[in-house]
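Quick start: read one record
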Amino acid sequence: MMNNIIFQYLIVNDEVDKRGDIQGRKRSDLYLEMADISTESFEKYAEEIGCKHMYSDERVFTKGHGCSTSTLYECLRVIYDPYFDQFDKVLFADTDIVVNTKENIFEISDAEVYGVLESDIRCETQGGYNAWDYDPKVMKDYIEKFNMHDCPLIPSFGIGNKFESKLTILNTGVVVWTKEARLKARELFDSWEAWCYPKSVNPNNKVHHMSILNDQPFISSQLMKYDFDLESVDQSWNDTPPHYKDPQHWIDTGKCKFLHYTGGEQKAEMVDLYHKGKFPIFNEGW
């Protein structure tokens, strides 16, 4: 029997509230309640599929780093923390996600690493997440950043993706890592600090927008650079109900398996829906 685990974390510090309230609520308070809801759903899910669940509210892998962008790299703990070596597969999941399925995510792919590509996330009410495909300036920034770190720019093709894109960028809010992939990454991955703090390597290096400095482009670049077996699974495993014209229909019918409420306003919506009893996993008889 496979020994798997789900890992989540949320690190709240003074910097969070400097970004302002959300719908009249202190941002840190909203985030903490959001995390409580998310972890409760994943604890239920872990019990359902027979795996462990772990939640952390402190820096471990990124201990000693102060900037807000560095907190996003705490997800690399599943690679570098020897604690996780005892597990076959590890699911990392953001804390703005509510589980909406009993299907076992650990059984949907045999790839070394799998999740949903940014370019595969499509919705009815907004544009796609893959800005580099339609904004030349964004693509230019990615080219600069990848070249800076000697990383290849690989188009998405033949890895389960539904839509071709100029770049293979994984949405790192939901990622499953096999043990083999984690050990391989531990050995091969470049320095995340060099990516996050480029001037520490060369004072002349350009500092790009945090959307490029964060963990998502870094992890994606490393998966491509070191030729990992990556698969893009169905969008339903990392989907955002507010992006549909009838969000509750997508929840009630189970078309969205992992409900990902990205962005401040949508996090507030997630908390509101929880209090209204709109998430099936919290209802009697789930």
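The chain has one domain: 5-282.
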